[in-house]
Design brief:
Elements (H helix, E strand, L loop, with lengths): L2 E2 L14 E2 L2 E6 L5 H16 L1 E5 L4 H7 L6 H5 L3 E4 L7 H10 L3 E5 L1 H6 L3 H15 L5 E6 L5 H10 L2 E10 L2 E10 L9 E7 L2 E4 L7
Helix pairs in contact: 4-6, 6-7
Length: 213
């Protein structure tokens, strides 16, 4: 099984050095850090895989501002990180498959925008085609904003993905606890754990205390 390193401090070590090369659905509510997670991975794996970051509802300038945690200017100049902004819904499948065929990792931000525009079937087809066309050569990450669509749709999207990374935020008496759970992963490796984390100015930081279960 091919594996890759996310290079997120403390994360790869939980998976024996890396995660399987797959198409991952990354799901979480607003503010949970799911978007920061895929932005950080986009930055950290771009030198190896070349990343195409596709957004439906953000301008190029808007995406670059979101990536301010990381210095992406060199990667963009070298086309190792390619930002495709304000992509039209009707052409999205052709655009994304073109990037996959170039052996680039694809990040989709986000499927919820498609579903919100009553294009649920397009969202399903897109997820299935990315998985099929990438042929296990590049990791791909597809965002889904939890709660923007029905539970039935969210379950269907998790079914079609090869791996599911779920972000959760819990509030208790004014304090916030955040954790990642691996709901689905190719080969079933180490699925039965939750991973506590915090959000920092430099991205995701995994807490390495014994609270990992």
């Amino acid at each position: 099984m091919n594996i890759f390193k996310t290079h997120i401090a403390g994360f790869d070590e939980l998976f024996d050095g890396g995660m399987p090369v797959s198409t991952f659905l990354v799901i979480g509510p607003p503010g949970s850090g799911s978007e920061m997670f895929v932005r950080e991975i986009s930055y950290r794996i771009a030198n190896k895989f070349n990343v195409s970051y596709v957004s439906f509802n953000s301008s190029l300038n808007g995406i670059q501002k979101k990536l301010n945690e990381f210095d992406t200017s060199k990667l963009e100049k070298e086309n190792k990180l390619k930002i495709i902004s304000n992509e039209k819904f009707d052409s999205i499948i052709d655009t994304v498959i073109s990037e996959v065929n170039k052996k680039r990792s694809v990040v989709i931000d986000s499927l919820s925008d498609l579903i919100y525009e009553d294009k649920e079937n397009t969202a399903k087809d897109l997820l299935k085609l990315i998985t099929e066309k990438s042929e296990d050569k590049t990791p791909n990450f597809v965002l889904l904003t939890e709660g923007m669509q029905t539970t039935e749709i969210e379950i269907a999207m998790q079914h079609y993905a090869e791996g599911v990374i779920h972000f959760t935020t819990l509030w208790d008496k004014g304090s916030i606890t955040r954790f990642i759970s691996i709901r689905k992963i190719r080969g079933g490796m180490k699925r039965e754990r939750t991973i506590p984390y915090i959000l920092t100015e430099n991205g995701i930081k995994i807490e390495t205390s014994l609270r990992i279960t």
